[in-house]
Amino acid sequence: MTRPPPQTIPLLTEVVIDTTDDLPLLTDIAQNVPLKPTVATPPPDSTPGVQQALETYIETVLAEKLKAHLVIAQQWAIEAAVAELKNELPQLIREAQDRTDTD
């Protein structure tokens, strides 16, 4: 069951092509735009302070991230070394016992 539309909302029932308006076309507007891009530059007096602050911030962020990755890499290296030692330890113990037996 469909309800009739409310009377306050206009209803589009036909397409009307009205070319009496003299609105410019988008291509006409685009032709009037200058093609040379402009580059925004910061004021010269604030550049050194801002640049130094930015460099310090970037160094701090990179140092923290590298520190976190270094901790993870160190943990992996320690785990690998312990696993290798566990694998080789029985053989090392046997070799040490054989040496003491032959002496």
Name the features.
mainly alpha; 2 helices; elongated; about 0% strand; about 100 residues
Summarize the structure.
By secondary structure, this protein is mostly helical. Helix content is 60%, strand content 0%.
What does this structure look like?
The chain is mainly α. The protein has a domain at 72-103. Helix content is 60%, strand content 0%. The protein has helices spanning 26-31, 47-102. The chain is elongated and about 115 Å long. The N and C termini lie far apart (104 Å). The mean pLDDT is 79.
Helical residues, percent: 55-70%
The ordered string of helix (H) and strand (E) elements is: HH
- By helix and strand content, what is the structural category? mainly alpha
Strand percentage: under 5%
Specify the number of helices.
Answer: 2
Q: Poorly predicted ranges (pLDDT <50, ≥5 residues)? A: none
Q: Average pLDDT value?
A: 79
Question: How many runs of DSSP E, i.e. beta strands?
Answer: 0
Instruction: Note the overall shape.
Output: elongated
Ordered list of secondary-structure elements with their pairings:
Blueprint: H1 26-31, H2 47-102
